[in-house]
């Protein structure tokens, strides 16, 4: 197996300790889900795509959501890889990219969405659904939903698609969004956040519910998983794992899958959700084989996120 594994979603090419990694995007028409598949299937995009990524000027941290972010106004969630209680993750957003791809993301302020770089890189436009639970429904059948289109985003300046490092991007909404009980920001882990090894973390998204599923889930799903050390994760993925990653154990087939890319990994403390990771990659052997899933570690990128968005973290 190669020392620097390339992205692949074909086959189960596993060595003794190193697994080929697969990005968890989905190739997706608003909103005929049969046309949207995990972006990883066709990654990378054709070079004819012209990026509109930009470098935003650095901002002083003046936007403070810490008094109300990460709080759920609905009933307790359902765990174990099943459908989430509607709107129990009001920061979760669905991102339809260029009319072809699907990713997740999280609302972190009234004008910014956090997602993965491999979701945003080289994109032309994003159709973003906020306040949604069933993305298959028409907007008229889901009155809590707000749909916006954005063409402004930035990827981390050190994003490396070969090794999947610094897999972080920010999308700016065209206008500040109005918060509702169904649309709320999630809290961000600060740069001083602990490593969470041994903690139970929470994943949510519309990704494929199984390896055999034909496409992404129409309804938001969620699962709780244990965090493992980067050293243990590196036993599987080698040099792909850096300080900018956080990993979880997916034993039993519980974890993220294709279409979950860009969505949040959170730690719940006294009822408040703090985002500690961004869904990034897993094993090309499949989502249910029990190998670790990798995420971008939010605390590692907190200063960069703050400098772009002006968010106090």
TrEMBL record:
Please name the GO terms that the record assigns under molecular function. Answer: serine-type endopeptidase activity
- Hydrolase listed as a keyword: yes
InterPro entries documented for this protein: Peptidase_S1_PA, Peptidase_S1_PA_chymotrypsin, Peptidase_S1A, Trypsin_dom, TRYPSIN_HIS, TRYPSIN_SER
Matching entries from CDD domains are given as: Tryp_SPc
UniProt KW Acyltransferase keyword: no
Q: Name one GO biological process term.
A: proteolysis
Residues in Peptidase S1 domain copies: 78-310
- Give me the segments passing through the membrane: none
SUPFAM superfamilies per record: Trypsin-like serine proteases
What keywords are annotated for this sequence in UniProt? Disulfide bond, Hydrolase, Protease, Serine protease, Signal, Zymogen
This chain belongs to the protein called: Chymotrypsin elastase family member 2A
**Species classification:** Eukaryota, Metazoa, Ecdysozoa, Arthropoda, Crustacea
